[in-house]
Amino acid sequence: LAHAEIMSSSAAESTATLAAVRADLAAAKSEAADWRNAAAEAREKSETHAGERDALKEELTSRNNALRSLGSQLVGVRDELSAEKEALLQAKHELLSTRSELNEVKREREELRSSSVTELSRAKKELLSAKQEMERLRKELAAARSAAALACRSNS
Prior knowledge:
156 residues
């Protein structure tokens, strides 16, 4: 009987131990399930982040390509602007040359006008002087005619 009690007591302890082990096993299974769920979530997040990362890489690649294209276009525009600037500088040089030539022509024209005015003024003075001389000679001629007429009358 003592042996049966020991066995019964031992069986009760074993049952309690088994129950404790089963409880520990259930807790371990629950914890393992939690870890599996956490791992699945982590994988899902990792895959989501990988997808987002790939999408960001594609967007960055696309933007880099667009920037390279814009850079090439800007180089083309810069070259065109440089060519236009060179053409404008050439046109400016030609304009300055033409302006210089025009100023020379204006100066020559002004000199001609000035000399023409001077010549005209001198010619007017000479004409006036000649008119005065002619008037003086007419008066002398008239006086000489009068004297000749008087002399002819007195001789007759």
